[in-house]
Amino acid sequence: METDADRLASIRAGGGVPVLSAEHPTFWSIFDRQYSGVSMGDIDVESRSPALTCRSSDIEELTKDQVLTVGGIDYRVLRAEPDTPAPGWTTLVLRL
To answer: Domain containing 70: what range?
Structure first.
């Protein structure tokens, strides 16, 4: 069974970055720009959305619209997708 320590080791080994917040302790996460497809009537638009994959235990207190700094750029939390990609993990979808 995967532990929180295992997840942290995976993040660091996978090129994880520190995530800063004025309201929350610093935590480590994997930053990604996920594919995002949006349909607008007959028009399909493709884009990339910034996202963080992190340990669920690190972000229990985060709220929507909270500001997180990754690589010197401020993002706001759009939504959390718990247990993605697996139990114990959460993907935070961000916006500028």
So the answer is: 4-95
* pLDDT tens digits along 32-71: 975 566 677 787 776 678 999 999 999 999 999 999 999 9
- Tell me the CA distances in angstroms from 18 to 1, 27, 38, 54, one per residue in order: 25, 6, 30, 11
pTM, full prediction: 0.83
Q: Are 65 and 24 in contact (CB under 8 A)?
A: no
| CATH number for 44 | 2.40.10
- Spell out a b/e string for 11-45, using b for 16 or more CB atoms within 10 Å of the CB, else e: beeeebeebbbeebeebbbbbeeeeeeeeeeeeee
Tokens representing 37 are 């497809």
